[in-house]
């Protein structure tokens, strides 16, 4: 009993209810995420302008597209699960089917939770980015997490599904679409980050002559420091590669030596050498 996973403390007859509740909870989380993004869009239009507004709109639009793709994925996954239960339960009830396949059911619940959590985290990160209190890297990490949890949900559903199932092929198509939309979020976030950083670092219009000269000298110092650091890292990389090649070569040599067959014992009678073969 002590070695059993904690998730098995739940009664097996409750697993079926948990699957339905978790999928419904995930759908609600995604709907809420879409509403929050729409609110953020209106706030961004009221509080920002120019380059920042353009960047915020592009990021939030890509997040909206991703949420729509996730919503379709969850709906398709729900339909596939119903199909799996109907085709596999036989005379048993839905609850009995989930109880009989408890490990699969727990994997399904875990995957659904991961998708809903990823959607919520993405919206919170987008909110912080729009308000300039968060980091663009958070959005990128959340997008990767959503792609990973989507793959987990598809894998969990695929285990019990028929290969010829239309719902399965739709789910796989939805998964590819989610990955594509997640990649769009990453791309829009990176390009927006570059635009904002370039605008912030290249605006010298309000500086005096003395301030400009001071900034110029400080920048020269940074350039020299970075060049020196880059040269040191290149030397380090070269030494690491040398060591890697040396170790890899020694390892291959040891393997070749071990793989060589032991020499055959000499015999008194010399045998005719084998005929030469064509190369």
From TrEMBL:
Which ranges carry the I/LWEQ domain?
7-248
Return the GO cellular component terms, semicolon-separated: clathrin-coated vesicle; cortical actin cytoskeleton
Keywords attached to this entry:
Coiled coil, Cytoplasm
Q: Can the keyword Phosphoprotein be found in this entry's annotation?
A: no
Q: Where in the cell is it found?
A: Cytoplasm
Question: Which segments does the entry list as coiled coil?
Answer: 207-243
Q: Which GO terms describe its biological process?
A: actin filament organization; clathrin coat assembly; endocytosis
Gene3D superfamilies noted in UniProt: I/LWEQ domain
| One Gene Ontology term of the molecular function aspect | phosphatidylinositol-3,5-bisphosphate binding
What InterPro entries does the annotation carry?
A: I/LWEQ_dom_sf, ILWEQ_dom, Sla2_fam
Q: Where is this region: Disordered?
A: 255-279
Task: Write down the superkingdom of origin.
Answer: Eukaryota
Read off the Pfam families from this record. Answer: I_LWEQ
> Which SMART domains does its entry note?
ILWEQ (SM00307)
UniProt keyword Cytoplasm present: yes
- What name is this protein filed under? Huntingtin-interacting protein 1-related protein
Report the source organism.
Aptenodytes patagonicus (King penguin)
Q: Source taxonomy lineage?
A: Eukaryota, Metazoa, Chordata, Craniata, Vertebrata
Q: Which gene codes for it?
A: Hip1r
């Amino acid at each position: 009993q002590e070695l059993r996973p904690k998730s098995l403390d739940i009664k097996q007859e409750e697993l079926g209810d948990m699957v339905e509740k978790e999928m419904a909870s995930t759908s609600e989380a995604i709907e809420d995420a879409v509403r929050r993004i729409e609110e953020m869009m209106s706030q961004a239009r009221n509080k920002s302008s120019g380059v920042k507004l353009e960047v915020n709109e592009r990021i939030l639009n890509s997040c909206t597209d991703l949420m729509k793709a996730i919503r379709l994925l969850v709906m398709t996954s729900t339909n596939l699960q119903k199909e799996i239960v109907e085709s596999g339960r036989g005379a048993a009830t839905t609850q009995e089917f989930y109880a009989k396949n408890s490990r699969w059911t727990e994997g399904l619940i875990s995957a659904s939770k991961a998708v809903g959590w990823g959607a919520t985290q993405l919206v919170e990160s987008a909110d912080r980015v729009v308000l300039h209190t968060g980091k663009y890297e958070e959005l990128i990490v959340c997008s990767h997490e959503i792609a990973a949890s989507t793959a987990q949900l598809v894998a969990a559903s695929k285990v019990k599904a028929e290969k010829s199932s239309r719902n399965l092929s739709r789910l796989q198509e939805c998964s590819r679409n989610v990955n594509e939309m997640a990649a769009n979020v990453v791309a829009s976030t990176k390009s927006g980050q570059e635009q904002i950083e370039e605008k912030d670092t290249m605006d010298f219009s309000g500086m005096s002559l003395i301030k400009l000269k001071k900034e110029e000298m400080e920048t020269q110092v940074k350039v020299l420091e970075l060049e020196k650091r880059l040269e040191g890292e290149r030397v380090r990389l070269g030494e690491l590669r040398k060591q890697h090649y040396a170790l890899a070569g020694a390892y291959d040599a040891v393997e070749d030596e071990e793989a060589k067959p032991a020499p055959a014992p000499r015999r008194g009678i010399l045998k005719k050498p084998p005929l030469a073969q064509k190369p």
